[in-house]
Amino acid sequence: MSDATFRVMLRMQIKPGMEADFERMWQEVGDSVTGHPANRGQWLARSTAEGEDGIYYIVSDWVDEPQFRAFETSDTHLQHRTKLHPFRSGGSMATMRIVASLEGAAA
């Protein structure tokens, strides 16, 4: 991974009982993100922390911030968000630039 990678991390609270449907929909609409030429990949993780029932983290890596911001304001992203919104009861977004990485032994 390039040190220039721009990473976006979303924390999403999913409405109780809708977790499986959310996971299915995320898989169905994911190519609207990963199909963007500046996207390096996207991951969905479900929290296992006590007291975080229904909490998911979505991480996506981008070539750079300007290209992510262009995607963020695009019609494609709006359609993607519209399909996932019914499952959400809250959330937040953090953005960051990767400054270093170390590959683990299992890689």
UniProtKB/TrEMBL annotation:
InterPro entries: ABM_dom, Dimeric_a/b-barrel
GO molecular function, one term: monooxygenase activity
Pfam families: ABM
SUPFAM superfamilies the record matches: Dimeric alpha+beta barrel (SSF54909)
Domain ABM: 6-96
Presence of keyword Oxidoreductase: yes
Source organism, top-level taxon: Bacteria
The protein, known as: Antibiotic biosynthesis monooxygenase
Organism field: Streptomyces guryensis
Biological classification of the source: Bacteria, Bacillati, Actinomycetota, Actinomycetes, Kitasatosporales
